Protein backbone atom coordinates (compact mmCIF):
# COMPACT_ATOMS: atom_id res chain seq x y z
CA UNK A 1 0.00 0.00 0.00
CA UNK A 2 2.80 2.35 0.84
CA UNK A 3 4.62 1.40 -2.37
CA UNK A 4 1.51 2.18 -4.42
CA UNK A 5 1.21 5.52 -2.69
CA UNK A 6 4.87 6.31 -3.41
CA UNK A 7 4.44 5.34 -7.06
CA UNK A 8 1.40 7.55 -7.41
CA UNK A 9 3.25 10.42 -5.80
CA UNK A 10 6.23 9.95 -8.13
CA UNK A 11 3.88 9.75 -11.12
CA UNK A 12 2.16 12.96 -10.05
CA UNK A 13 5.50 14.73 -9.62
CA UNK A 14 6.64 13.57 -13.07
CA UNK A 15 3.45 14.93 -14.63
CA UNK A 16 4.19 18.32 -13.06
CA UNK A 17 7.67 18.43 -14.63
CA UNK A 18 8.01 21.76 -16.45
CA UNK A 19 11.41 20.79 -17.88
CA UNK A 20 10.85 17.57 -19.85
CA UNK A 21 13.99 15.86 -21.12
CA UNK A 22 14.31 15.26 -24.83
CA UNK A 23 16.18 12.10 -25.85
CA UNK A 24 19.48 12.74 -27.57
CA UNK A 25 18.38 10.70 -30.57
CA UNK A 26 15.75 13.38 -31.33
CA UNK A 27 18.19 16.28 -31.04
CA UNK A 28 19.94 17.49 -34.17
CA UNK A 29 23.00 19.75 -33.94
CA UNK A 30 23.50 22.27 -36.74
CA UNK A 31 26.26 24.69 -37.67
CA UNK A 32 23.88 27.65 -37.44
CA UNK A 33 22.77 26.60 -33.96
CA UNK A 34 26.38 26.26 -32.83
CA UNK A 35 27.21 29.73 -34.17
CA UNK A 36 24.26 31.31 -32.40
CA UNK A 37 25.19 29.49 -29.18
CA UNK A 38 28.77 30.76 -29.41
CA UNK A 39 27.54 34.33 -29.88
CA UNK A 40 25.10 33.97 -26.98
CA UNK A 41 27.75 32.61 -24.61
CA UNK A 42 30.13 35.43 -25.58
CA UNK A 43 27.47 38.07 -24.89
CA UNK A 44 26.63 36.42 -21.56
CA UNK A 45 30.28 36.48 -20.50
CA UNK A 46 30.81 40.13 -21.54
CA UNK A 47 27.64 41.43 -19.89
CA UNK A 48 28.23 39.40 -16.74
CA UNK A 49 31.76 40.83 -16.53
CA UNK A 50 30.44 44.39 -16.90
CA UNK A 51 27.68 43.73 -14.38
CA UNK A 52 30.31 42.67 -11.86
CA UNK A 53 31.97 46.10 -12.20
CA UNK A 54 28.57 47.75 -11.65
CA UNK A 55 28.16 45.61 -8.52
CA UNK A 56 31.54 46.72 -7.19
CA UNK A 57 30.78 50.41 -7.79
CA UNK A 58 29.12 52.64 -5.20
CA UNK A 59 27.10 55.84 -5.43
CA UNK A 60 26.26 58.74 -3.13
CA UNK A 61 22.73 59.26 -1.83
CA UNK A 62 21.71 62.76 -0.75
CA UNK A 63 18.97 63.35 1.81
CA UNK A 64 17.75 66.56 3.45
CA UNK A 65 16.35 67.20 6.90
CA UNK A 66 15.96 70.10 9.34
CA UNK A 67 19.04 70.78 11.47
CA UNK A 68 17.94 70.60 15.11
CA UNK A 69 21.35 71.16 16.67
CA UNK A 70 21.55 74.84 17.62
CA UNK A 71 23.36 74.65 20.95
CA UNK A 72 26.72 73.33 19.76
CA UNK A 73 29.72 75.41 18.76
CA UNK A 74 30.83 75.90 15.19
CA UNK A 75 34.49 75.37 14.38
CA UNK A 76 36.18 77.62 11.78
CA UNK A 77 39.38 76.28 10.21
CA UNK A 78 41.59 79.01 8.75
CA UNK A 79 44.78 79.03 6.72
CA UNK A 80 45.20 82.41 4.98
CA UNK A 81 48.33 84.24 3.88
CA UNK A 82 48.14 88.05 3.70
CA UNK A 83 50.81 90.20 2.03
CA UNK A 84 51.38 92.33 5.15
CA UNK A 85 53.55 91.97 8.21
CA UNK A 86 52.01 90.14 11.16
CA UNK A 87 52.32 93.14 13.51
CA UNK A 88 50.15 95.25 11.20
CA UNK A 89 47.05 93.04 10.97
CA UNK A 90 44.58 91.30 13.27
CA UNK A 91 41.92 88.60 12.77
CA UNK A 92 38.82 87.95 14.85
CA UNK A 93 35.13 87.05 14.69
CA UNK A 94 32.09 89.13 15.58
CA UNK A 95 28.79 87.23 15.58
CA UNK A 96 25.25 88.52 15.08
CA UNK A 97 24.81 89.11 18.80
CA UNK A 98 27.78 91.53 18.72
CA UNK A 99 29.80 88.97 20.69
CA UNK A 100 33.51 89.11 20.04
CA UNK A 101 35.10 85.65 19.87
CA UNK A 102 38.59 85.22 21.25
CA UNK A 103 41.13 84.46 18.53
CA UNK A 104 43.52 82.54 20.77
CA UNK A 105 43.39 79.53 18.46
CA UNK A 106 44.92 81.49 15.57
CA UNK A 107 48.68 81.63 14.97
CA UNK A 108 50.51 84.41 13.14
CA UNK A 109 53.53 83.15 11.23
CA UNK A 110 55.83 85.40 9.13
CA UNK A 111 56.28 83.92 5.64
CA UNK A 112 56.99 84.90 2.06
CA UNK A 113 53.95 85.65 -0.06
CA UNK A 114 55.59 84.24 -3.18
CA UNK A 115 55.32 80.47 -3.53
CA UNK A 116 58.07 78.01 -4.30
CA UNK A 117 57.77 75.93 -7.51
CA UNK A 118 56.46 72.95 -5.54
CA UNK A 119 53.89 75.07 -3.70
CA UNK A 120 52.85 76.79 -6.94
CA UNK A 121 52.26 73.39 -8.57
CA UNK A 122 50.10 72.27 -5.65
CA UNK A 123 48.19 75.57 -5.76
CA UNK A 124 47.55 75.33 -9.52
CA UNK A 125 46.34 71.72 -9.12
CA UNK A 126 43.88 72.84 -6.44
CA UNK A 127 42.61 75.66 -8.66
CA UNK A 128 42.15 73.21 -11.55
CA UNK A 129 40.10 70.88 -9.32
CA UNK A 130 37.95 73.84 -8.25
CA UNK A 131 37.28 74.74 -11.90
CA UNK A 132 36.29 71.18 -12.75
CA UNK A 133 34.00 70.97 -9.71
CA UNK A 134 32.01 73.93 -11.02
CA UNK A 135 31.36 72.09 -14.30
CA UNK A 136 31.29 68.41 -13.30
CA UNK A 137 29.36 68.08 -10.05
CA UNK A 138 29.73 64.29 -10.06
CA UNK A 139 33.44 64.81 -9.39
CA UNK A 140 32.53 65.68 -5.79
CA UNK A 141 31.10 62.16 -5.34
CA UNK A 142 34.44 60.70 -6.40
CA UNK A 143 36.26 62.95 -3.93
CA UNK A 144 33.83 61.88 -1.18
CA UNK A 145 34.46 58.19 -1.87
CA UNK A 146 38.23 58.36 -2.24
CA UNK A 147 38.72 60.89 0.62
CA UNK A 148 41.27 62.84 -1.43
CA UNK A 149 42.89 65.56 0.60
CA UNK A 150 46.45 66.54 1.27
CA UNK A 151 48.13 69.42 3.08
CA UNK A 152 50.09 71.95 1.02
CA UNK A 153 53.85 71.55 0.87
CA UNK A 154 55.68 73.28 3.75
CA UNK A 155 56.84 76.81 3.09
CA UNK A 156 60.50 77.63 2.86
CA UNK A 157 61.10 80.47 5.30
CA UNK A 158 64.89 80.54 5.05
CA UNK A 159 64.79 84.07 3.69
CA UNK A 160 65.47 86.88 6.16
CA UNK A 161 62.95 89.33 4.67
CA UNK A 162 59.50 87.92 5.41
CA UNK A 163 56.93 90.51 4.33
CA UNK A 164 53.77 88.37 4.56
CA UNK A 165 51.83 86.78 7.39
CA UNK A 166 50.25 83.35 7.48
CA UNK A 167 47.22 83.18 9.79
CA UNK A 168 46.27 79.59 10.53
CA UNK A 169 44.45 77.63 13.21
CA UNK A 170 40.85 77.28 14.30
CA UNK A 171 38.15 79.12 16.24
CA UNK A 172 35.00 78.00 18.04
CA UNK A 173 32.05 80.35 17.55
CA UNK A 174 28.35 80.35 18.34
CA UNK A 175 26.14 78.67 15.78
CA UNK A 176 24.71 81.97 14.53
CA UNK A 177 25.55 84.30 11.67
CA UNK A 178 28.80 86.19 12.07
CA UNK A 179 31.67 88.01 10.44
CA UNK A 180 35.23 86.73 10.33
CA UNK A 181 37.55 89.48 9.20
CA UNK A 182 41.21 90.38 8.82
CA UNK A 183 41.94 94.08 8.86
CA UNK A 184 44.57 96.62 9.87
CA UNK A 185 45.64 96.71 13.52
CA UNK A 186 45.23 94.36 16.43
CA UNK A 187 41.74 94.08 17.86
CA UNK A 188 40.87 95.29 21.35
CA UNK A 189 37.64 94.74 23.36
CA UNK A 190 35.07 97.52 23.32
CA UNK A 191 31.78 97.97 25.23
CA UNK A 192 29.87 98.12 21.95
CA UNK A 193 31.81 95.43 20.16
CA UNK A 194 35.48 95.76 19.38
CA UNK A 195 37.93 98.03 17.61
CA UNK A 196 41.22 97.75 15.73
CA UNK A 197 44.28 99.91 16.38
CA UNK A 198 44.60 101.02 12.77
CA UNK A 199 45.87 104.52 13.53
CA UNK A 200 49.34 103.19 14.34
CA UNK A 201 49.82 101.68 10.86
CA UNK A 202 50.82 103.77 7.86
CA UNK A 203 48.59 103.63 4.79
CA UNK A 204 51.64 102.88 2.69
CA UNK A 205 51.89 99.50 4.45
CA UNK A 206 48.38 98.45 3.40
CA UNK A 207 48.32 95.46 1.07
CA UNK A 208 45.48 92.99 1.43
CA UNK A 209 46.51 90.73 -1.40
CA UNK A 210 45.88 87.31 0.03
CA UNK A 211 45.82 83.61 -0.66
CA UNK A 212 43.36 81.20 0.97
CA UNK A 213 44.97 77.79 1.28
CA UNK A 214 42.09 76.46 3.35
CA UNK A 215 38.87 77.73 4.87
CA UNK A 216 36.28 75.30 6.21
CA UNK A 217 33.64 75.00 8.90
CA UNK A 218 33.17 72.08 11.26
CA UNK A 219 35.42 69.06 11.50
CA UNK A 220 38.20 69.13 8.92
CA UNK A 221 37.71 65.92 6.93
CA UNK A 222 39.42 64.38 3.91
CA UNK A 223 37.17 64.22 0.88
CA UNK A 224 35.83 67.77 1.20
CA UNK A 225 37.40 70.53 -0.87
CA UNK A 226 35.92 73.86 0.16
CA UNK A 227 35.00 76.43 -2.51
CA UNK A 228 37.54 79.01 -1.29
CA UNK A 229 40.49 76.59 -1.08
CA UNK A 230 43.14 77.78 -3.51
CA UNK A 231 41.70 81.29 -3.93
CA UNK A 232 44.32 83.98 -4.59
CA UNK A 233 43.60 87.71 -4.85
CA UNK A 234 46.20 90.31 -5.74
CA UNK A 235 45.34 93.99 -5.29
CA UNK A 236 47.06 96.85 -7.06
CA UNK A 237 45.57 99.41 -4.64
CA UNK A 238 46.65 99.75 -1.05
CA UNK A 239 43.12 100.53 0.16
CA UNK A 240 41.06 97.57 -0.95
CA UNK A 241 38.20 95.62 0.55
CA UNK A 242 37.49 91.95 -0.20
CA UNK A 243 34.11 90.57 0.82
CA UNK A 244 32.99 86.92 0.86
CA UNK A 245 29.34 86.06 1.57
CA UNK A 246 29.16 82.47 2.78
CA UNK A 247 26.15 80.20 3.33
CA UNK A 248 27.02 77.23 5.54
CA UNK A 249 25.17 73.90 5.16
CA UNK A 250 25.47 71.31 7.97
CA UNK A 251 26.48 67.95 6.50
CA UNK A 252 26.51 64.36 7.73
CA UNK A 253 29.03 62.36 5.73
CA UNK A 254 28.87 58.58 5.89
CA UNK A 255 31.15 56.71 3.48
CA UNK A 256 33.19 53.52 3.70
CA UNK A 257 36.23 55.65 4.56
CA UNK A 258 34.82 58.54 6.60
CA UNK A 259 31.86 58.88 8.96
CA UNK A 260 31.48 62.25 10.67
CA UNK A 261 29.50 65.49 10.89
CA UNK A 262 30.91 68.57 9.22
CA UNK A 263 29.79 71.60 7.19
CA UNK A 264 29.90 72.58 3.53
CA UNK A 265 29.31 76.04 2.16
CA UNK A 266 28.63 78.10 -0.93
CA UNK A 267 30.12 81.54 -1.48
CA UNK A 268 29.73 84.71 -3.50
CA UNK A 269 32.39 87.39 -3.50
CA UNK A 270 33.08 90.97 -4.46
CA UNK A 271 35.91 93.41 -4.06
CA UNK A 272 36.44 97.09 -4.69
CA UNK A 273 38.98 99.81 -4.14
CA UNK A 274 38.25 102.29 -1.36
CA UNK A 275 38.26 105.88 -2.52
CA UNK A 276 36.42 108.28 -0.22
CA UNK A 277 36.66 111.10 -2.74
CA UNK A 278 34.83 109.01 -5.34
CA UNK A 279 32.18 107.85 -2.87
CA UNK A 280 33.56 104.35 -2.31
CA UNK A 281 33.65 104.08 1.46
CA UNK A 282 34.57 101.24 3.75
CA UNK A 283 37.37 99.67 5.73
CA UNK A 284 40.31 97.99 4.06
CA UNK A 285 40.55 94.30 4.81
CA UNK A 286 39.21 90.80 4.17
CA UNK A 287 35.66 90.22 5.41
CA UNK A 288 33.92 86.83 5.42
CA UNK A 289 30.27 87.14 6.39
CA UNK A 290 28.71 83.75 7.04
CA UNK A 291 25.21 82.50 7.74
CA UNK A 292 24.03 79.00 8.64
CA UNK A 293 21.33 77.16 6.69
CA UNK A 294 18.54 75.49 8.64
CA UNK A 295 18.64 72.36 6.45
CA UNK A 296 21.09 69.52 6.92
CA UNK A 297 22.43 67.36 4.09
CA UNK A 298 23.02 63.65 4.69
CA UNK A 299 25.49 62.12 2.24
CA UNK A 300 25.59 58.31 2.34
CA UNK A 301 27.65 55.96 0.20
CA UNK A 302 25.52 53.04 -0.98
CA UNK A 303 26.30 49.70 -2.57
CA UNK A 304 24.24 47.27 -4.66
CA UNK A 305 23.10 44.34 -2.49
CA UNK A 306 24.18 40.82 -3.40
CA UNK A 307 20.66 39.54 -4.06
CA UNK A 308 20.06 42.33 -6.59
CA UNK A 309 23.31 41.48 -8.36
CA UNK A 310 22.29 37.81 -8.62
CA UNK A 311 18.83 38.73 -9.94
CA UNK A 312 20.32 41.01 -12.59
CA UNK A 313 22.84 38.31 -13.52
CA UNK A 314 20.07 35.72 -13.95
CA UNK A 315 18.11 38.22 -16.03
CA UNK A 316 21.08 38.73 -18.34
CA UNK A 317 21.70 35.00 -18.84
CA UNK A 318 18.02 34.09 -19.25
CA UNK A 319 17.26 37.07 -21.48
CA UNK A 320 20.13 36.42 -23.88
CA UNK A 321 19.37 32.69 -24.00
CA UNK A 322 15.68 33.25 -24.78
CA UNK A 323 16.29 36.09 -27.24
CA UNK A 324 18.94 34.26 -29.25
CA UNK A 325 16.71 31.15 -29.35
CA UNK A 326 13.78 33.16 -30.69
CA UNK A 327 15.94 34.92 -33.27
CA UNK A 328 17.44 31.63 -34.39
CA UNK A 329 13.97 30.05 -34.72
CA UNK A 330 12.53 33.00 -36.66
CA UNK A 331 15.50 33.16 -39.05
CA UNK A 332 15.34 29.40 -39.59
CA UNK A 333 11.61 29.58 -40.31
CA UNK A 334 12.06 32.42 -42.83
CA UNK A 335 14.87 30.56 -44.57
CA UNK A 336 12.75 27.42 -44.84
CA UNK A 337 9.77 29.34 -46.23
CA UNK A 338 11.86 31.19 -48.80
CA UNK A 339 13.66 28.05 -49.94
CA UNK A 340 10.38 26.12 -50.15
CA UNK A 341 8.72 28.81 -52.26
CA UNK A 342 11.71 29.04 -54.57
CA UNK A 343 11.50 25.27 -55.12
CA UNK A 344 7.74 25.49 -55.83
CA UNK A 345 8.36 28.17 -58.44
CA UNK A 346 6.22 30.88 -56.95
CA UNK A 347 8.70 33.60 -57.90
CA UNK A 348 9.39 32.32 -61.41
CA UNK A 349 8.04 34.61 -64.09
CA UNK A 350 6.33 32.17 -66.48
CA UNK A 351 4.00 33.11 -69.28
CA UNK A 352 1.25 30.54 -69.14
CA UNK A 353 -2.26 30.50 -70.41
CA UNK A 354 -5.35 29.93 -68.33
CA UNK A 355 -5.37 26.16 -68.87
CA UNK A 356 -1.75 25.79 -67.83
CA UNK A 357 -2.36 27.94 -64.75
CA UNK A 358 -5.27 25.61 -63.82
CA UNK A 359 -3.04 22.57 -64.12
CA UNK A 360 -0.29 24.15 -62.00
CA UNK A 361 -2.77 25.09 -59.27
CA UNK A 362 -4.26 21.58 -59.30
CA UNK A 363 -0.84 19.97 -59.11
CA UNK A 364 0.16 22.21 -56.21
CA UNK A 365 -3.07 21.48 -54.37
CA UNK A 366 -2.58 17.72 -54.78
CA UNK A 367 1.02 18.09 -53.51
CA UNK A 368 -0.16 20.02 -50.47
CA UNK A 369 -2.77 17.35 -49.73
CA UNK A 370 -0.03 14.75 -49.67
UniProtKB/TrEMBL annotation:
Any one Gene Ontology biological process term?
Answer: endoplasmic reticulum to Golgi vesicle-mediated transport
Location (main, coarse): endoplasmic reticulum
Q: Which UniProt keywords apply?
A: Endoplasmic reticulum, ER-Golgi transport, Golgi apparatus, Membrane, Transmembrane, Transmembrane helix, Transport
Q: Where is the protein situated, by its record's location annotation?
A: Endoplasmic reticulum membrane; Endoplasmic reticulum-Golgi intermediate compartment membrane; Golgi apparatus membrane
Task: List cellular component terms (GO).
Answer: COPII-coated ER to Golgi transport vesicle; endoplasmic reticulum membrane; endoplasmic reticulum-Golgi intermediate compartment membrane; Golgi membrane
Can you tell which superkingdom this protein's organism belongs to? Eukaryota
Topology relative to the membrane:
Multi-pass membrane protein
Give all residue intervals belonging to the Endoplasmic reticulum vesicle transporter N-terminal domain. 13-98
Residue stretches making up the Endoplasmic reticulum vesicle transporter C-terminal domain: 163-327
Record keyword Nucleotide-binding present:
no
Write out the transmembrane intervals: 35-55, 309-335
InterPro entries noted in UniProt: Erv, Erv_C, Erv_N
Q: What does this protein do?
A: Plays a role in transport between endoplasmic reticulum and Golgi.
What is the protein named?
Answer: Endoplasmic reticulum-Golgi intermediate compartment protein
- What's the encoding gene here? ergic2
Amino acid sequence: MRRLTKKKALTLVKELDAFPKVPESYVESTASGGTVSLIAFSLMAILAFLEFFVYRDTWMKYEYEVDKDFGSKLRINVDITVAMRCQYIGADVLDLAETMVASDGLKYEPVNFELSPQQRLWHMTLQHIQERLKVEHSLQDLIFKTAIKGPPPPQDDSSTSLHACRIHGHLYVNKVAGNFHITVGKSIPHPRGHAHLAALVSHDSYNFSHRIDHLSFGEDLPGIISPLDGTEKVSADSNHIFQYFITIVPTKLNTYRVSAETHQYSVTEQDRAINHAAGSHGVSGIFMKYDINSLMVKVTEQHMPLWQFLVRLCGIIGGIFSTTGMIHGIVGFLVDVICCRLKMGVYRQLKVNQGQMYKIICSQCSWLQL
